Amino acid sequence: MELKKAVGIKAADYIESGMIVGLGTGSTAYYFVEEIGRRMKEEGLDIVAVTTSIRTKEQAEGLGIPLKSVDEVASIDVTVDGADEISDDFQGIKGGGAAHLYEKIVANHSKKVIWIVDDSKMVEKLGQFPLPIEVVKYGSQQVFNRFETKGYKPTFRKHDDGSLYLTDEENYIIDLHLGQIENPAALAIELDGMTGVVEHGLFIDCVNTVLIGSVDGVTVKEANR
Ligand code: 5RP
Hints:
Protein name: Ribose-5-phosphate isomerase A
CATH topology of the largest domain: Rossmann fold
Mean pLDDT: 98
Catalytic activity: aldehydo-D-ribose 5-phosphate = D-ribulose 5-phosphate
GO molecular function: ribose-5-phosphate isomerase activity
Helix content: 25-40%
Bound molecules: ribulose-5-phosphate
Low-confidence stretches: none
EC number: 5.3.1.6
Shape: globular
Radius of gyration: 17 Å
Distance between the termini: 30 Å
GO cellular component, one term: cytosol
């Protein structure tokens, strides 16, 4: 938790008054949102935010952060979000918190995207973390079967009581247990083309800057895009 807190607070250095800021989702983004709330209250930071989930919206509202919907802003200056895995070439898996649909919409509308992670999320190649796929309920078993046929080892995401997990859009999540993804860009195109798939958790050529928390402090890596 301390590493996540350290990168969350550090990421707030990138935020200045007048900006429109995308607020990510998850236990690392949580600390960023808390720090934004603190700076607004104690330092007079003046921003408007766009949120990526109901959870983050509720947190931001509780902190008194002014919000707009993604459709109300011409563009977002900076979005700060967590990630589940980041490869050496700056591709990412997101959606461990099932918010990757809104997160991708917000990221695609942002001039700059910053991911904040602890060093356990940095990998050579993506795929150890199960790849989240948001699917519409109707025909979801058919989509599941197609994944199985392809050897993608799908599982429906469930709560502890066995009920199916629902996203903010009331869709299901299927997690693919791929082990290693040799060509994430090609897989993203394949998944984009599958009927019934709403959005997958591969974020290709998306991030600009990564803040990595480790016991030695926070390291900044630039994707140079
Ligand atoms: C939610 C996400 C999160 O950013 C990702 O799961 C990382 O979460 P955490 O910071 O809690 O490890 O993509 O959909």
